[in-house]
Amino acid sequence: MAIFRSSYTLRVMVEEAQKLTEHASVRQRIDEVLRIMGNDFGGTYGKGRPLVDALEDVAQESLLHEDIALAQRFQRFAGYAGGKLYLDTVENYYNKGARQRSEEYMRRMVAMGAERAAAALDVLCAENPEASFADALALFRGIARATDHLAIGAGEGGIQLPSKYLKHLQAFGHMELVLRNLPRPASAEVARMMSDVLADADAGMLAQVLELKARRAGLESLRAAVDQPDSSESALHACLKNQEWIFGGAYVAELARRQYTPDTILDIPLLRGDGSLHVVELKRANVEKLVIRPSGHLMLGAPAHHAVSQAQNYLRTMDESRQTILARYGIDTRRASATVVIGHSQYVGGSITPQEVAETLRTYNTHMARIEVITYETLLESAARMLALSSAGQAPGLIEESAA
User: Fold this and answer.
1) pLDDT tens digits for range 243-272
2) Is the Cβ–Cβ distance between 104 and 24 less than 8 Å?
3) C-alpha dist (Å) from residue 70 to 2, 137, 195
4) Helix residue ranges per DSSP H, 47-165
5) Coil, helix or strand for 7?
6) Which of 161, 205, 272, 348 has the most CB atoms less than 10 A away?
7) pLDDT reported for residue 203
């Protein structure tokens, strides 16, 4: 069951975001969001699927005007309205005061942890002056395991911890991920040098390093899912969500809206630089009969033909509804193209080699005009090459450290 949210805070953030665009069509769609929410101060704000759709429409319109930042902002608003994100998370992005409070909270918690660690070491050294590094490591590992048994308890009168504080547990989980990725200098001198490097580093360069690290993590996540024989289409889809870079540099962004006609829901709709639509249809990686050899000649099996037929139907529907989609969403679907991602050579049976799979697909694709069929193997290899090229010359030392 979907959980829809709305609030005065969301309305304020939407109103503030409206000031960031001068495009009349974007402002018009934001007006529709505000109309749905209403202006019932202190009361109930409009919510539900209409609000989520309206927020996604703003994101889509912003993409058409190449305002990626505003589009991302409204995608996050839609995530909150659709019950996928907490309001605290969205506020940390777009509310300076909330972000500062969150940062101060994190700093205090880290400082408190460091002080407790120092106190624990003091006790260890006082009780055992000859304590080694291994002793200190064992101490902290014991403390870490012991925290699993800590609890607030029911309290007097049966008072329980309110469920809203579960969000704080998530915050600690995020903090743990951050701390886990911090560099671990071997000495105080190395720590000082690292601090100096980061202080002098260009903000744009650091942003590129973080983006490359995120892309590398996304690629590894997809590779792990592909290598799991039982991975479903939805699991593979989750790994490719908002990872349009994997499909090449011709695509501006992944569109927020996946449905443009009543009977068509697209897996991954991508926007080309010219404003046209490209459809990515995802199938399972574990397809034994992706390529078959029925009479000595190699050809695509039934699963691939079924996927191509599905993509053909999508494109036909888009062609027939071109005027309606263009008028309502600003997306040109005339002569839209598609990519079918299906299978991997490691799962193909019949003693068919990876080279034979690649050659069969290459032959098939030369006879196709608007649809290309590729394997997850090809997708992973091309994305890895593109990532390697992007990494070349971009702060090599820091990138190698993040890769490690």
Assistant:
1) 888 888 777 778 878 888 887 889 999 888
2) no
3) 25, 46, 33
4) 49-64, 68-81, 87-94, 96-127, 133-146
5) coil
6) 348
7) 53
Q: Is the distance from CB of 329 to CB of 276 less than 8 angstroms?
A: no
- The tens digit of pLDDT for each residue in 149-160 reads 555 454 444 444
Residue whose pair of structure tokens reads 């080699």 in the numeric block? 353
In order of 73, 102, 129, 259, the CA distances from 327 in angstroms are 24, 42, 77, 15
Average pLDDT over residues 218-247: 90
Q: β-strand 371-374 against 299-300: which pairing, if any? A: unpaired
Strands 332-341 and 371-374: parallel
CB 350, CB 292: distance < 8 Å:
yes
Secondary structure tally for the chain: helices H, strands E: 16, 9
Dist. CA 223–CA 143, nearest whole Å = 35
Q: Which of 30-44, 52-66, 375-389 has the lowest mean pLDDT?
A: 30-44
d(CA 268, CA 254): 7
> CA 362 to CA 384: how far, in whole Å?
20
Q: Which two tokens stand for residue 299?
A: 């050809």
